[in-house]
Amino acid sequence: MVTDAHIHIQPFHQMPPPIADTFWKGKGNRAELEGYAADPRKLLARMDADGVERAGLINYVSPDLMGFTDEANPWMIRYASADPSRLIAFGSVHPRFSKDVAGDTARVIERGAKALKVHPPHQMFRANAYQDALPSLADLYGVAQDAGVPVTIHTGTSVFPGARSRFGDPMDVDDVAIDFPRLTILLAHGGRPLWMESAFFLVRRHPNVHLEVSGIPPSKLLEYFPRLEEIAGKTIWGTDWPSPGVQSMRANVEAFLSLPLSDAAKGQILHGNAAKLWN
């Protein structure tokens, strides 16, 4: 059983040219990927071929940088409705573009989102910006906490034009974990490639913080997190497919299975921990 909690099948048509150029660079299978976005049945067939039982469909609102408007939410929820038992819809509310963050967040969850995504480098605010510049961000975290819905927060850098990589420092999440102790937080990408030690610290410090390893080549995983076995019970599998370097969901799983980790740890990371979050 494999749950890939972080893949990108999104409304690609919303991306402006500079972002689309970066995203599609080097991808000779653009038509294939756009076909998955057009028809969830094709994605489900690809998941079958790759041996993936469930997939988290990452979505975030970023109209001024990535081009994704709040219309991406109904798009994603409608897409995942093809098989809600296998497709985990991520919703998003951008506090700088919402007049009612609490209400919008509640509605996204009510309509079918099983998780939320916050992307500081692409939404251009710090994960703890509710402390000063963006008080309404606290409403997003508070509603998610009360609803029992996990929030995946991007940590680490970004190569997209205009992205503010400094906002990817995972130490900002230290405040979020303290102020919202019942909120399940997933640190997407584990702070790679600059802040892996900070991410490891947060996972060990806070009961509600989990490591999510998407975007990390399996061959680098134990280099970045040499004590991964210690936090296997709080680590969630993800690939970031079809990002650069990710040939397929299956290829990453096979490379991960070759690592010198216990079978118990591999089972927790690949599926068991995610099953507890989305049972």
Question: Gist?
Answer:
With 279 residues, the protein is an alpha/beta fold. It is 40% helix and 11% strand.
What does it look like?
- The protein has 279 residues and is α/β, with parallel strands linked by helices.
- 40% of the residues lie in helices and 11% in strands.
- It contains 12 helices and 8 strands.
- The chain has helices at residues 17-24, 30-38, 40-50, 72-80, 101-110, 120-123, 137-147, 172-179, 196-205, 218-224, 249-257, 263-277, and strands at residues 3-7, 54-57, 87-91, 115-118, 151-154, 185-188, 209-212, 235-236.
- An 8-stranded parallel sheet has the order 1-2-3-4-5-6-7-8.
- The radius of gyration is 17 Å and the shape is globular.
- 48% of the residues are buried.
List the helices and strands and how they pair.
Layout: E1 3-7, H1 17-24, H2 30-38, H3 40-50, E2 54-57, H4 72-80, E3 87-91, H5 101-110, E4 115-118, H6 120-123, H7 137-147, E5 151-154, H8 172-179, E6 185-188, H9 196-205, E7 209-212, H10 218-224, E8 235-236, H11 249-257, H12 263-277
Helix pairs in contact: 2-3, 5-7
- Number of helical segments? 12
Biggest pleated sheet = 8 strands, parallel
Spatial strand sequence of the major β-sheet = 1-2-3-4-5-6-7-8
Helicity level, as a percent range?
Answer: 25-40%
Poorly predicted ranges (pLDDT <50, ≥5 residues)? none
Structural class comes to alpha/beta
Radius of gyration: 17 Å
- The count of β-strands is 8
**Strand residue content:** 5-15%
Cα(first) to Cα(last) distance is 13 Å
Average predicted confidence as pLDDT: 97
Any idea what the shape is?
Answer: globular
